[in-house]
Amino acid sequence: MIARTVPALRRAVDNLRKRKATIALVPTMGALHDGHVSLVRLAKRRASRVVVSIFVNPTQFAPTEDFGAYPRTWKADIAKLAAEDVDIVWHPGVEAMYPEGFATRIVPEGPALAGLEDRFRPHFFGGVATVVGKLFTQCRPDFAIFGEKDFQQLRVVTQMARDLDLGVKVLGSRTVRERDGLAMSSRNVYLSPEERQTATVLYRAMKESAGRIRAGDAIAPAMAGGAEMIKAAGLVLDYYEVRHAETLAPVTSRKDGPLRILVAAKLGTTRLIDNIAV
């Protein structure tokens, strides 16, 4: 079923609840790839019914970003979701999500102010938190599935659901990669064939740094080596950092807790993000 208005969505969700269903929500912006399909499959393992939202959220794009050009592949998306036996597709228009007079926003702190994505996209997590908060209250899921590729986003949404007692258990799903290691992303379509080959340096650099840290090297030189690999390939780094995997706080030693390497870099006009556990 495809729902395009909140009343239609509520009726569909109520019908599932009458049958004692557990519900998992997979929020997406469409342009679905195998990474999204993996989220749907995890959702099906955790709940008896699955709702997938497709909404390109304007409030998380700055005026200089690619909202208008963001890939939209509706027919292909619906075919993928039908093949996975998804129960409901929630596909609101902007006017349904942000009706005239809309004036309330969620302003997250904590992991949203870690000095990573927020340093370069200060508008981003307010837009994400507001739209995800609405999706949670609209769909009323038991579980919500997010990919680990957007790792800071995963931490922000997890914190928000906990802090606001939204009754949703947020689950992270492992990043799905191409055979050469590049993280699957809807924005990969922007890469030229040459850039596509170059982009693999992000994963190789992170693996190199993580291996050195696990082998006992100090964090600073291990991370500096990875950063140089990325710069030498011609990418412009926004950040390349190792952080505490739960709080995203800076760390100085492997003993500081579970670690995560996070990277954001521009290759031509395309901005790529990725991360791996240490």
Report on this structure.
Strands 1-4-3-2-5-6 form a six-stranded parallel sheet, sandwiched between helices. The chain has a three-stranded antiparallel sheet with strand order 7-8-9, covered by helices on one side. With 278 residues, it is an alpha/beta fold. The longest helix has 16 residues. Strand 8 and strand 9 form a beta hairpin. Helix 6 crosses helix 7 and helix 9 packs antiparallel against helix 10. The chain contains ten helices and nine strands.
Question: Strands, helices and their partners?
Answer:
Elements: E1 2-3, H1 6-18, E2 23-28, H2 34-46, E3 49-54, H3 74-83, E4 88-90, H4 94-97, H5 117-120, H6 124-139, E5 143-147, H7 151-163, E6 169-173, H8 193-198, H9 201-214, H10 219-232, E7 236-244, E8 259-267, E9 270-277
Parallel strand pairs: 1-4, 2-3, 2-5, 3-4, 5-6
Antiparallel strand pairs: 7-8, 8-9
Coarse structural class: alpha/beta
Major β-sheet strand ordering = 1-4-3-2-5-6
Strand content: 15-25%
What gyration radius follows from the Cα positions, in whole Å? Answer: 19 Å
Helix count equals 10
Which properties best describe this structure?
alpha/beta; globular; six-stranded parallel beta sheet; 38% helix; 278 residues; three-stranded antiparallel beta sheet
